[in-house]
Specification:
mainly alpha; 3 helices
C-alpha cells in the first residue's frame, strides 16, 4: 500500500509541475506575447525543466528561508516585526499599479 501511495504522490507532483509550467508558458507566450523559441510547446518544456531544477535545488533550506523572511529572528529574538515577503510584494505591487496607471511609459534619459 505504501508503494501505491508513493506512486500516486509522484504522479500528482508531476501533474502540478506540468500545470505550473503550462500556465507559465501561456502567460509569457500568449498573454504577454513574448517571442520565445519553440513557441508555446518550447516554452512549456523550458518552464517544466526550470520548475523541476529550481525545486530540486531549493530543498528544505528554501522553506526555512521563507519562514525566516516572514518572521526574521535569530534564536528566540525578533530582529524586526515585519513580514518581509508581504512588504516586498506590496511595494512592487503598488509600483506596478502606478506604472500601469501611467500607461507604462518609459523614461527618456
Amino acid at each position: 500500500m505504501d508503494v501505491f501511495l508513493e506512486i500516486i504522490r509522484f504522479v500528482i507532483e508531476f501533474l502540478f509541475y506540468m500545470i505550473i509550467a503550462y500556465f507559465s508558458a501561456w502567460y509569457f507566450f500568449i498573454y504577454k506575447r513574448k517571442a520565445l523559441p519553440g513557441k508555446l510547446l518550447g516554452s512549456f518544456v523550458i518552464a517544466f525543466i526550470g520548475g523541476i531544477i529550481l525545486s530540486l535545488l531549493s530543498g528544505s533550506w528554501f522553506i526555512s528561508f521563507v519562514n525566516w523572511l516572514m518572521t526574521p529572528k535569530f534564536g528566540e529574538n525578533f530582529i524586526i516585526r515585519v513580514n518581509l515577503i508581504t512588504a516586498f510584494l506590496g511595494a512592487f505591487g503598488i509600483l506596478w499599479l502606478y506604472n500601469y496607471i501611467n500607461h507604462d511609459k518609459t523614461r527618456k534619459d
